[in-house]
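REVIEWER CHECKLIST
Item 1: Sequence provided? yes
Item 2: Single chain? yes
Item 3: Sequence as submitted:
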Amino acid sequence: MTATHPKPDYLLFERALPHQVRAMIAGAPIAYLPLGALEWHGEHAALGLDGLKAEAICRRAAALSGGVVFPPVYWGAFGTVRFPFTFHFGKRALRRQLRATLAALADWGFRSIVVLAGHYPWAQIRMARSECRRVGRERGVGALGIPEQALALDLGYLGDHAAKWETSLALAIDESLVDLAQLPDDTGSLAERAARHGITGVCPKREASRELGEVALATIATRLATMATRLAIEGGGPAEEIYRAYRAAFRRPLTAARTALGVQSAWEIARFAVGDALRTWKR
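Item 4: Structure as written out by the authors:
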Protein backbone atom coordinates (compact mmCIF):
# COMPACT_ATOMS: atom_id res chain seq x y z
CA MET A 1 0.00 0.00 0.00
CA THR A 2 1.30 3.45 -0.90
CA ALA A 3 1.54 5.84 2.02
CA THR A 4 -0.51 8.99 1.72
CA HIS A 5 0.58 12.36 3.00
CA PRO A 6 -1.57 15.44 3.66
CA LYS A 7 -1.24 18.20 1.11
CA PRO A 8 1.05 20.91 2.52
CA ASP A 9 -0.30 24.41 3.00
CA TYR A 10 2.75 25.71 1.16
CA LEU A 11 6.12 24.51 -0.07
CA LEU A 12 9.70 25.53 0.54
CA PHE A 13 11.14 25.30 -2.94
CA GLU A 14 14.53 23.95 -1.92
CA ARG A 15 12.91 21.08 0.04
CA ALA A 16 10.15 20.28 -2.45
CA LEU A 17 9.98 17.47 -4.99
CA PRO A 18 9.16 18.43 -8.60
CA HIS A 19 5.71 16.83 -8.61
CA GLN A 20 4.84 18.77 -5.43
CA VAL A 21 5.76 22.06 -7.11
CA ARG A 22 3.68 21.17 -10.17
CA ALA A 23 0.69 20.35 -7.97
CA MET A 24 1.05 23.60 -6.02
CA ILE A 25 1.25 25.65 -9.22
CA ALA A 26 -1.94 23.95 -10.39
CA GLY A 27 -3.76 24.73 -7.15
CA ALA A 28 -2.14 27.92 -5.82
CA PRO A 29 0.19 29.43 -8.44
CA ILE A 30 1.80 31.90 -6.02
CA ALA A 31 5.56 32.43 -5.68
CA TYR A 32 7.09 34.27 -2.73
CA LEU A 33 10.64 35.58 -3.19
CA PRO A 34 12.25 37.18 -0.09
CA LEU A 35 15.08 39.69 -0.61
CA GLY A 36 17.63 40.17 2.14
CA ALA A 37 21.15 41.40 2.76
CA LEU A 38 24.13 40.45 4.90
CA GLU A 39 24.57 43.62 6.88
CA TRP A 40 25.40 44.72 10.41
CA HIS A 41 22.30 45.44 12.47
CA GLY A 42 24.14 46.77 15.48
CA GLU A 43 25.69 44.50 18.06
CA HIS A 44 22.26 43.34 19.19
CA ALA A 45 20.70 41.73 16.10
CA ALA A 46 21.51 39.00 13.59
CA LEU A 47 23.59 39.87 10.54
CA GLY A 48 21.13 38.20 8.17
CA LEU A 49 18.08 39.83 9.73
CA ASP A 50 16.74 41.33 6.49
CA GLY A 51 16.44 37.98 4.75
CA LEU A 52 15.31 36.12 7.87
CA LYS A 53 12.58 38.70 8.35
CA ALA A 54 11.39 38.58 4.73
CA GLU A 55 11.39 34.78 4.66
CA ALA A 56 9.43 34.50 7.92
CA ILE A 57 6.79 36.91 6.61
CA CYS A 58 6.56 35.03 3.29
CA ARG A 59 6.21 31.68 5.05
CA ARG A 60 3.44 32.97 7.29
CA ALA A 61 1.65 34.51 4.28
CA ALA A 62 2.04 31.32 2.25
CA ALA A 63 0.52 29.30 5.09
CA LEU A 64 -2.64 31.34 4.46
CA SER A 65 -2.61 31.57 0.66
CA GLY A 66 -0.75 28.45 -0.42
CA GLY A 67 2.13 28.72 -2.85
CA VAL A 68 5.87 28.23 -2.95
CA VAL A 69 8.38 30.14 -0.83
CA PHE A 70 11.81 30.49 -2.41
CA PRO A 71 15.09 30.85 -0.49
CA PRO A 72 15.99 34.42 0.47
CA VAL A 73 18.26 36.25 -1.95
CA TYR A 74 21.17 37.59 0.10
CA TRP A 75 23.90 37.99 -2.49
CA GLY A 76 23.71 41.11 -4.63
CA ALA A 77 21.98 43.42 -2.15
CA PHE A 78 23.15 47.00 -2.56
CA GLY A 79 22.70 50.24 -0.69
CA THR A 80 24.44 48.81 2.38
CA VAL A 81 26.55 51.12 4.54
CA ARG A 82 30.18 50.69 5.67
CA PHE A 83 29.32 48.73 8.77
CA PRO A 84 31.27 45.76 10.15
CA PHE A 85 30.53 42.32 8.65
CA THR A 86 28.60 43.86 5.76
CA PHE A 87 28.79 42.90 2.08
CA HIS A 88 28.52 45.56 -0.64
CA PHE A 89 27.49 44.97 -4.25
CA GLY A 90 26.65 47.07 -7.29
CA LYS A 91 23.15 47.37 -8.75
CA ARG A 92 23.60 45.51 -12.02
CA ALA A 93 24.13 42.04 -10.58
CA LEU A 94 20.90 42.08 -8.59
CA ARG A 95 18.89 43.48 -11.50
CA ARG A 96 20.09 40.69 -13.79
CA GLN A 97 19.42 38.07 -11.13
CA LEU A 98 15.97 39.41 -10.32
CA ARG A 99 14.95 39.75 -13.97
CA ALA A 100 16.01 36.20 -14.80
CA THR A 101 14.31 34.82 -11.68
CA LEU A 102 11.00 36.53 -12.38
CA ALA A 103 11.02 35.34 -16.00
CA ALA A 104 11.65 31.75 -14.88
CA LEU A 105 8.82 31.87 -12.33
CA ALA A 106 6.41 33.13 -14.98
CA ASP A 107 7.57 30.44 -17.43
CA TRP A 108 6.94 27.73 -14.84
CA GLY A 109 3.31 28.81 -14.53
CA PHE A 110 3.19 31.03 -11.46
CA ARG A 111 0.40 33.59 -11.88
CA SER A 112 1.23 35.62 -8.76
CA ILE A 113 4.79 36.62 -7.84
CA VAL A 114 5.61 38.46 -4.63
CA VAL A 115 9.05 40.00 -4.15
CA LEU A 116 9.30 41.04 -0.51
CA ALA A 117 12.30 43.14 0.45
CA GLY A 118 13.55 43.01 4.02
CA HIS A 119 16.44 45.28 2.95
CA TYR A 120 14.97 48.43 1.47
CA PRO A 121 17.13 51.32 0.27
CA TRP A 122 15.07 53.46 -2.12
CA ALA A 123 16.98 52.33 -5.22
CA GLN A 124 16.35 48.67 -4.45
CA ILE A 125 12.67 49.28 -3.78
CA ARG A 126 12.36 51.01 -7.15
CA MET A 127 14.21 48.16 -8.84
CA ALA A 128 11.92 45.50 -7.35
CA ARG A 129 8.88 47.49 -8.41
CA SER A 130 10.11 48.12 -11.95
CA GLU A 131 11.13 44.50 -12.53
CA CYS A 132 7.78 43.27 -11.23
CA ARG A 133 6.00 45.68 -13.55
CA ARG A 134 8.17 44.45 -16.41
CA VAL A 135 7.37 40.78 -15.91
CA GLY A 136 3.71 41.68 -15.51
CA ARG A 137 3.65 43.45 -18.86
CA GLU A 138 5.71 40.88 -20.71
CA ARG A 139 4.30 37.65 -19.24
CA GLY A 140 0.81 38.65 -18.15
CA VAL A 141 1.24 37.72 -14.50
CA GLY A 142 0.45 39.61 -11.32
CA ALA A 143 3.69 40.69 -9.64
CA LEU A 144 4.35 42.83 -6.59
CA GLY A 145 7.70 44.20 -5.42
CA ILE A 146 7.60 45.94 -2.03
CA PRO A 147 9.38 46.32 1.31
CA GLU A 148 7.61 44.75 4.27
CA GLN A 149 6.50 48.06 5.81
CA ALA A 150 4.40 48.90 2.75
CA LEU A 151 1.74 46.69 4.34
CA ALA A 152 1.99 48.14 7.84
CA LEU A 153 1.90 51.90 7.28
CA ASP A 154 -1.15 52.33 9.49
CA LEU A 155 0.82 50.86 12.40
CA GLY A 156 3.32 53.69 12.08
CA TYR A 157 5.97 51.40 10.57
CA LEU A 158 7.65 53.28 7.72
CA GLY A 159 10.93 51.38 7.89
CA ASP A 160 13.95 51.52 10.18
CA HIS A 161 17.30 49.79 10.63
CA ALA A 162 18.04 47.69 13.72
CA ALA A 163 15.65 49.95 15.63
CA LYS A 164 12.26 49.53 17.29
CA TRP A 165 10.43 47.82 14.41
CA GLU A 166 13.08 45.55 12.93
CA THR A 167 14.18 44.42 16.38
CA SER A 168 10.57 43.75 17.40
CA LEU A 169 10.00 41.66 14.28
CA ALA A 170 13.17 39.69 15.01
CA LEU A 171 11.99 39.03 18.57
CA ALA A 172 8.65 37.76 17.26
CA ILE A 173 10.32 35.50 14.69
CA ASP A 174 12.99 34.02 16.95
CA GLU A 175 14.18 35.60 20.19
CA SER A 176 17.65 34.09 19.67
CA LEU A 177 18.17 36.58 16.83
CA VAL A 178 18.34 39.45 19.35
CA ASP A 179 20.47 40.24 22.41
CA LEU A 180 19.53 43.66 23.72
CA ALA A 181 22.10 43.29 26.50
CA GLN A 182 24.71 44.17 23.86
CA LEU A 183 23.37 47.74 23.80
CA PRO A 184 23.98 50.39 26.47
CA ASP A 185 20.99 51.70 28.38
CA ASP A 186 21.43 55.08 26.69
CA THR A 187 22.11 54.92 22.93
CA GLY A 188 22.15 58.72 22.62
CA SER A 189 20.53 60.93 20.02
CA LEU A 190 19.27 59.76 16.65
CA ALA A 191 22.59 60.68 14.98
CA GLU A 192 24.63 59.05 17.75
CA ARG A 193 22.61 55.83 17.56
CA ALA A 194 23.23 55.60 13.83
CA ALA A 195 26.96 56.37 13.98
CA ARG A 196 27.85 54.28 17.05
CA HIS A 197 25.32 51.49 17.07
CA GLY A 198 24.03 51.17 13.48
CA ILE A 199 20.50 51.98 14.63
CA THR A 200 18.31 54.15 12.41
CA GLY A 201 15.12 54.95 14.27
CA VAL A 202 13.73 54.57 17.78
CA CYS A 203 16.07 52.98 20.32
CA PRO A 204 15.14 49.27 20.45
CA LYS A 205 16.29 48.90 24.04
CA ARG A 206 13.55 51.31 25.07
CA GLU A 207 10.67 50.31 22.82
CA ALA A 208 11.22 47.02 20.96
CA SER A 209 9.17 44.05 22.12
CA ARG A 210 8.14 40.61 20.96
CA GLU A 211 4.49 41.64 21.35
CA LEU A 212 4.87 44.61 18.99
CA GLY A 213 6.73 42.41 16.53
CA GLU A 214 3.98 39.82 16.58
CA VAL A 215 1.37 42.47 15.76
CA ALA A 216 3.46 43.71 12.83
CA LEU A 217 4.28 40.20 11.63
CA ALA A 218 0.65 39.07 11.70
CA THR A 219 -0.59 42.26 10.03
CA ILE A 220 1.95 42.17 7.20
CA ALA A 221 1.63 38.45 6.54
CA THR A 222 -2.17 38.48 6.47
CA ARG A 223 -2.27 41.41 4.08
CA LEU A 224 0.46 39.91 1.92
CA ALA A 225 -1.48 36.65 1.58
CA THR A 226 -4.58 38.57 0.52
CA MET A 227 -2.61 40.56 -2.05
CA ALA A 228 -0.89 37.46 -3.41
CA THR A 229 -4.24 35.75 -3.92
CA ARG A 230 -5.67 38.82 -5.64
CA LEU A 231 -2.65 39.07 -7.95
CA ALA A 232 -3.25 35.54 -9.20
CA ILE A 233 -6.85 36.42 -10.09
CA GLU A 234 -6.70 40.10 -11.05
CA GLY A 235 -3.21 40.61 -12.44
CA GLY A 236 -1.14 43.66 -11.57
CA GLY A 237 -3.92 46.01 -10.45
CA PRO A 238 -3.66 45.23 -6.72
CA ALA A 239 0.09 45.90 -6.85
CA GLU A 240 -0.53 49.43 -8.10
CA GLU A 241 -2.85 50.05 -5.13
CA ILE A 242 0.01 49.21 -2.75
CA TYR A 243 2.51 51.34 -4.68
CA ARG A 244 0.21 54.36 -4.54
CA ALA A 245 -0.38 53.99 -0.81
CA TYR A 246 3.35 53.66 -0.13
CA ARG A 247 4.20 56.77 -2.18
CA ALA A 248 1.47 58.71 -0.38
CA ALA A 249 3.01 57.87 3.01
CA PHE A 250 6.16 59.78 2.01
CA ARG A 251 4.51 62.70 0.27
CA ARG A 252 5.40 64.92 3.24
CA PRO A 253 9.02 63.93 3.88
CA LEU A 254 9.45 65.69 7.21
CA THR A 255 6.26 64.18 8.63
CA ALA A 256 7.30 60.76 7.39
CA ALA A 257 10.78 61.17 8.88
CA ARG A 258 9.32 62.13 12.26
CA THR A 259 7.15 59.00 12.24
CA ALA A 260 9.85 56.65 11.00
CA LEU A 261 12.66 57.98 13.18
CA GLY A 262 10.63 58.74 16.30
CA VAL A 263 11.82 62.33 16.74
CA GLN A 264 10.07 65.67 16.36
CA SER A 265 13.08 67.94 15.99
CA ALA A 266 13.76 68.95 12.38
CA TRP A 267 17.30 69.87 13.41
CA GLU A 268 17.96 66.40 14.80
CA ILE A 269 16.60 64.82 11.62
CA ALA A 270 18.79 67.09 9.49
CA ARG A 271 21.87 66.24 11.56
CA PHE A 272 21.13 62.55 11.16
CA ALA A 273 20.54 62.91 7.39
CA VAL A 274 23.93 64.57 6.88
CA GLY A 275 25.70 61.82 8.80
CA ASP A 276 23.79 59.13 6.91
CA ALA A 277 24.71 60.70 3.57
CA LEU A 278 28.38 60.79 4.55
CA ARG A 279 28.35 57.13 5.60
CA THR A 280 26.73 56.16 2.32
CA TRP A 281 29.21 58.28 0.32
CA LYS A 282 32.12 56.49 1.99
CA ARG A 283 30.96 53.07 0.80
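Item 5: Key structural point noted by reviewer: The CA atoms of residues 42 and 198 lie 5 Å apart.
Item 6: Recommendation: ____
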